[in-house]
């Protein structure tokens, strides 16, 4: 390890020394509309300060070019090719903090009758951008990306938080997840495995669309779109290895190939993680008797994963896309619990230990195919997206209980149980989208439909060890087998009307039918249901001087219960907190009203949003007795919220972003009286900053705090902290990342439940403190391999070869 640190230090020293020469470097690639590399294009760099000072090169066979020994200052770049429009990139600023620019995918279009050049003002990407109330997190600019997975990165994006179960939320609601503009049709477990196995280094940016496009207007939490890296023309890739003090290690490799209209990308990797934690709960009954439990756990996970995609532009009007995703999770978990029951006088009435060993494996393949057709009319497009996914989950849980006397001496009594679960999930989806602009270029319609069908086969066999015969006998109370089918059919239409350049109104309607069925083999019965829902939306958007913006929107959204909420199988891993689902759950419908006001100027932005949400048939996990927890619909609720997200540049090198949300939920009088519900507020806060030094070194810090209210109490979490430090050495081929998580405080969660006849406090703490070192090597053969030799000659005061 010491040799590695010394090598990195030496490489960093020479890298910094070289940059004191005050010269800039420029590389890039030029393509036509069909993504074909343009060899022989003329690239001219012109100085604003000295118009006679210019550099001119021709692009290579792969459309690549490079310039070096560029004095610091402002420049414009002019790219021309016979028969194509000339493109001018304005205001490229070479300086000590940013001396190296890589301009990929400069597209030249056919000449127009006007013969005018296309002028683009070049803008460097900040860590976070905000426009029209939406947020773009440029993961490629974050020092956290190479040392994190997609789930970790999402938690550092403004407006995004995780609820106590780890579910991703946007402004307190569940969003639709897209990858490269295509919906991820996975169940909750598959989605969590996907996000935790997806390396941050494969992500280009994360878009948070609080005002989603028409096809996703019915999603209560909007849309999160994860855009992956596409690479440059030619072959390029990255190899990474990492290790952390929390007990984690792994590696991954990614490869991209681009030529003309064909793009192939591949990723494969594996990660091993250890999670350790502890907790307790204390339950006090109205008669002053009590139950206390203390637990310690360790979870081991091995996650192999892979992803391959092919994107092919048949021509500029037709595109084909293929994505194959595979995730696997081998888990081996241990949990030890101690239970102490006492009477009103504080005397111990029951004392025992329970050890739970849970091991198993999950396999999740996913296939997505899409076709996009465009016409000569700009903006008209037809798209078909189809997907197939499957999940096979097998687990075996063994429970061993040992009973003690009040003085903790052995009583000689024990029991052993086993529960084997096999869950098989299959999902199929097809989605159609059609967008049509009218000839007036002010009216746009969007039509679409999708059909989603899924099947879950869940089988749970439970048994106990008969100590007399030493045989395993069936435990009928915990045995279950059922099939669950869900079919969703959606049809939608919307229209958007422009009233001038800065004002538009959109409105639309979706009609949706949901059908579901349970085949319950244990009771030899069938439970089924079907319902229609109509989901309208409307949005008004106004901008002033490209600086101020206002958005007023209404959406009716739906949240459907899934198999996890309706699963009748009894989970008795904690016999004093028995959990099961509810077959009778109804969907929850909400009317959401939002007003967003924003300002953006010179890279700084500020937004404030006011919201009112009226929900009916809200379903939530409720403790119906001191020992039982299930899902129930409540009569309804009203929620008032205020949120804000802001960003500013304190210095050219330092940028800060901050977001916060407070929501106060009010329950019905019936729920307060009969279920003892309490009104309460939820709070989330995120602060992150980015520091760049000489374009080679960067640091990112993020701080989060969340407090969630639930109908029977509140859950409070401690402050979370992430820091990332990145160094790009050896001409940016070697990337070193140090990621630090919770260096001062471990993650803690504390909750209170106020039920009929009891009060309960829960506490858990996880070993989240971690120092992770990631080493990545970036390679390519797209012409930039000549770059190192050219730069070395510059730094040795030699003129580079043409």
TrEMBL record:
InterPro entries documented for this protein: Beta-barrel_TonB_sf (IPR036942), CarboxyPept-like_regulatory (IPR008969), OMP_b-brl_3 (IPR041700), Plug_dom_sf (IPR037066)
Source organism per UniProt: Flavisolibacter ginsengisoli DSM 18119
SUPFAM superfamilies reported in the protein's UniProt record: Carboxypeptidase regulatory domain-like, Porins
One Pfam family in the UniProt entry: CarboxypepD_reg
Keywords on record: Cell outer membrane, Membrane, Receptor, Signal
Outer membrane protein beta-barrel domain: residues covered: 375-777
Gene3D superfamilies, alphabetized: Carboxypeptidase-like, regulatory domain (2.60.40.1120), TonB-dependent receptor, beta-barrel domain (2.40.170.20), TonB-dependent receptor, plug domain (2.170.130.10)
GO cellular component terms listed in the entry, alphabetical order: cell outer membrane
Classification of source organism: Bacteria, Pseudomonadati, Bacteroidota, Chitinophagia, Chitinophagales
Keyword Membrane in annotation: yes
Record protein name field: Outer membrane receptor for ferrienterochelin and colicins
């Amino acid at each position: 390890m010491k040799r590695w640190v010394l090598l990195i230090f030496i490489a960093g020293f020479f890298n910094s020394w070289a940059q004191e020469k005050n010269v800039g470097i420029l590389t890039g690639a030029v393509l036509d509309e069909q993504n074909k590399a343009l060899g022989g294009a003329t690239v001219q760099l012109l100085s604003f300060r000295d118009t006679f000072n210019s550099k001119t090169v021709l692009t290579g066979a792969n459309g690549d070019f490079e310039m070096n020994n560029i004095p610091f200052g402002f420049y414009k770049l002019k790219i021309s090719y016979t028969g194509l429009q000339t493109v001018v990139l304005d205001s490229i600023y070479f300086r000590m903090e940013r001396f190296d620019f890589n301009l990929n995918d400069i597209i030249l279009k056919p000449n127009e009758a006007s013969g005018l050049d296309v002028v683009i003002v070049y803008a460097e990407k900040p860590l976070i951008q905000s426009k029209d109330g939406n947020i773009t997190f440029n993961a490629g600019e974050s020092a956290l990306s190479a040392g994190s997975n997609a789930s970790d990165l999402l938690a550092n994006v403004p407006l995004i938080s995780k609820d106590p179960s780890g579910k991703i939320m946007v402004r307190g609601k569940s969003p639709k997840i897209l990858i490269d503009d295509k919906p991820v049709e996975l169940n909750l477990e598959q989605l969590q495995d996907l996000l935790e196995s997806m390396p941050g280094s494969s992500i280009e940016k994360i878009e948070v669309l609080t005002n989603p496009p028409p096809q996703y207007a019915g999603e209560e939490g909007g849309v999160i779109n994860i855009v992956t890296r596409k690479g440059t023309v030619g072959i390029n890739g990255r190899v990474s290895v990492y290790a952390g003090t929390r007990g984690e290690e792994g590696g991954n490799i990614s490869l991209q190939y681009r030529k003309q209209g064909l793009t192939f990308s591949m990723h494969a990797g594996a990660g091993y993680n250890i999670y350790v934690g502890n907790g307790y709960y204390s339950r006090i009954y109205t008669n002053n008797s009590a139950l206390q439990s203390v637990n310690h756990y360790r979870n081991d996970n091995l996650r192999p994963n892979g992803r391959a995609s092919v994107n092919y532009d048949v021509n500029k009007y037709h595109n084909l896309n293929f994505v194959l995703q595979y995730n696997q999770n081998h888990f081996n978990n241990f949990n030890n619990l101690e239970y102490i029951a006492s009477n009103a006088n504080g005397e111990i009435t029951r004392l025992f230990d329970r050890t739970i060993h849970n091991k198993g494996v999950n396999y999740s393949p996913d296939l997505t195919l899409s076709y996009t057709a465009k016409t000569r009319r700009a903006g008209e497009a037809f798209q078909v997206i189809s997907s197939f996914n499957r999940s096979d989950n097998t687990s075996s849980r063994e429970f061993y209980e040992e009973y003690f006397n009040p003085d903790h001496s052995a009583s000689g009594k024990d029991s052993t149980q086993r529960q084997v679960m096999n869950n098989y999930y299959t999902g199929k989806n097809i989605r159609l989208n059609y967008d049509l602009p009218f000839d007036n270029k002010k009216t746009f319609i969007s039509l679409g439909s999708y059909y989603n069908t899924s099947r879950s086969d869940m089988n749970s066999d439970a048994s106990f060890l008969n100590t007399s015969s030493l045989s395993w006998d069936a435990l009928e109370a915990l045995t279950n087998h059922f099939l669950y089918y869900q079919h969703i059919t959606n049809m939608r239409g919307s229209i958007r009307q422009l009233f001038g350049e800065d004002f538009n109104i959109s409105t639309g309607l979706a009609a949706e039918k949901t059908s579901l069925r349970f085949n319950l083999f244990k009771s030899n019965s069938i439970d089924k249901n079907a319902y229609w829902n109509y989901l309208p939306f409307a949005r008004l958007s106004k901008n002033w001087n490209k600086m101020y913006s206002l958005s007023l929107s209404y959406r009716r959204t739906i949240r459907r219960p899934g198999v996890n909420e309706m699963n009748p199988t009894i989970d008795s891993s904690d016999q004093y907190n028995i959990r099961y689902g509810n077959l009778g759950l109804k969907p929850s419908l909400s009317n959401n009203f939002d007003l967003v006001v924003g300002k953006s100027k010179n890279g700084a932005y500020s937004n404030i949003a006011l919201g009112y949400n009226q929900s009916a048939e809200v379903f939530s996990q409720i403790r119906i007795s001191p020992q039982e927890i299930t899902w129930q619909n409540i009569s309804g609720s009203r929620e008032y919220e205020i949120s804000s997200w802001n960003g500013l540049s304190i210095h050219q090198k330092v940028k800060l972003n901050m977001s916060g949300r407070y929501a106060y939920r009010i329950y019905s009088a019936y729920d307060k009286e009969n279920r003892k519900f309490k009104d309460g507020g939820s709070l989330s806060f995120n602060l992150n900053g980015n520091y760049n030094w000489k374009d080679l070194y960067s640091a990112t810090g993020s701080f989060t705090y969340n407090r969630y209210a639930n109908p029977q109490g509140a859950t409070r979490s401690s402050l979370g902290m992430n820091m990332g430090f990145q160094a790009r050495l050896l001409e940016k081929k070697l990337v070193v990342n140090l990621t630090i998580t919770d260096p001062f405080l471990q993650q803690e969660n504390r909750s209170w439940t106020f039920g009929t006849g009891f009060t309960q406090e829960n506490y858990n703490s996880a070993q989240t403190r971690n120092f992770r070192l990631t080493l990545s090597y970036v390679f390519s053969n797209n012409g930039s391999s000549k770059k190192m030799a050219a730069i070395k000659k510059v730094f040795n005061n030699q003129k580079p070869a043409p």
